[in-house]
Amino acid sequence: MMAKTLKQRLAEQIPALREERAALMRDHRDKVISQVTVEQAIGGMRGVKGMVCDTSVVEPDTGLVIRNIPIKDLTEAMPEEIFWLLLTGEKPTKEELAGFQKELKKAGKVPDYVWKVLKAMPKTSHPMVMLDTAILAMENESLFRKRYDKGMPKQDYWDPMLDDAIRILGTIHTIAAGVYRIRYKKGALIKPSPKLDWGADYCRMLGIDNPKLKKGEKFNKEDVYAMMRLYLVLHSDHEGGNVSANTCHTVGSALSDAYYAVSAGLNGLAGPLHGLANQECLGWILETMKKFNGAPTEKQLEDYAWETLKSGKVVPGYGHAVLRITDPRFDAFRAFGHKYMPNDPVFLTVDRVFNVVPKVLKEHGKAKDPWPNVDAGSGALLYYYGLKEFQYYTVLFSVSRAMGMLAQLVINRALGTPITRPKSVSTEWLKKQVLKV
């Protein structure tokens, strides 16, 4: 039996998915699924159940679950497998994976005008501005827009949207690597390899798989390739309500093509409250090490954690809006660190903080969730393998999260999801409603 392409597999699934949604609307359209409090209306709609996302959910006692598979069970997967899983709900066969990887390679040509744009930007441009500008510049390549302008049946919207998604996914790691080399003067651009997988090739194009070694040092390229694959898998999706996914969804709902929508989502990810956390966590770790002239003992960390909390500050990387357990993604990074860099001072500090801080936060009594989230550990791994430019870390996050944003875009066009248009109310209206109650 011949392996199916991703487009063929989706085409088989879409009729049943459309019927499922039509049945929900036909039989249950008036059922109430959520109520909104004044606090939620004023406080960023946190916790309001007001949109549908099938790619992943975040459960308080499980963590991230992608298509009914807990993320802890996907740590050995390839990023390309994750994208297939996000879209179809199934892992690809070995043959399907190989075919999809070839499809990504075929779609991987970055237009020359993109490099000209990036090289013409100010030398001090933020790496996220460069990545976002490059993706938006590539809108010229959109097959969705071209077919829409010619007149395309609504039921076919998903088809060119998938083509655009594959083009973005096939190029974003190359663009991101180019941004790194241009912005930080790392030398000539490195062209994609026809042989390496998506994550490994990203490493190679960054140039971090070939470091300058001191006498006696050893380095295995496969280790850094494994780190990058893990990073890309763990950050690939996180429901539909976070700033980047929700922004991408909203822009896409207006039938803007994937280049517009992903670019918009990346602008949200660039915000300090969304995409800055892992560099803030690593910064705190390095400052702590500087204070103690190296990796502190657990007793020193305990005292310092109390000092931090009593001064009104927080320990970055600890606490999560939804989770009530250690983030399984942190567990995965920690396990990787124990395997590949157990004696690295930065990783040792991260590990010791984990052994100490939850207990301190419990005793302190103000944290709903005293456990670490994914950002508490990811920066240490990047730092160990030579990625020490903190501003670039959000670009890595973006390359990964593009998978989730693109998968959600394609699914919503397949299902005919309408334009997003919630109703806003004034403060005066709120006051009147409260008085009525």
Automatic annotation (TrEMBL):
Listed Pfam families: Citrate_synt
PROSITE patterns: CITRATE_SYNTHASE
SUPFAM superfamilies found in the cross-reference section: Citrate synthase
Keywords noted in UniProt: Acyltransferase, Transferase
Keyword set includes Nucleus: no
EC number: 2.3.3.16
Presence of the UniProt keyword Acyltransferase in the record: yes
GO biological process, one term: carbohydrate metabolic process
GO MF terms, alphabetically ordered: citrate synthase activity
Pathway: Carbohydrate metabolism; tricarboxylic acid cycle
Family: Belongs to the citrate synthase family.
Protein name: citrate synthase (unknown stereospecificity)
